[in-house]
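Chain particulars:
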Amino acid sequence: VATGGMAAYYPFSSNTNDASGGGLNLTGSGGTFVDGGLRLSANARYTSSSTSILNTDKYTLSFEIKFPVSPSTGYNSIFQFVTSDTDRSPGIWRLPNANGLHWRHDPGNAGIDESFRFNQNQWYTVTGVKNGNVFTLYVDGKPVAPGSVPASKSPGLGQLLFGKPVN
């Protein structure tokens, strides 16, 4: 997670500590460390302390992901920035019935459902770059879903959330 330089970095190889030194360690449970990453179960939930690092409309989020099992019928939360007014943007979900991603940008749930489909049991590097109302999604360094999105999000402090969504 980065804005104006690296703000947090989670290698997820054996713990949920912020390796950037920014102090945004995650607390939670429900995941297991396997195959060099954190596998999230259906009830996994990890959160950071409150932060303002994504209180902006210019950011880059980058992560590595592998889909080890077939998708479920509902949206599965991977990442959210949860503010006090229940805005969950930006947020990243696995698409129902597909190995694809939905990248949410604003409280109205506007976002991009990219057409790229991920193979099971293969690692990918995914990067999303938002600059105002322009958003580009990259997979392994190649743009796969450029598009227009709402320029603004709800301001405020929030927590980084990995796993189970907020209600």
The CA atoms of residues 9 and 20 lie 5 Å apart. The chain has a mean pLDDT of 80. DSSP finds no helices and eleven strands in the chain.
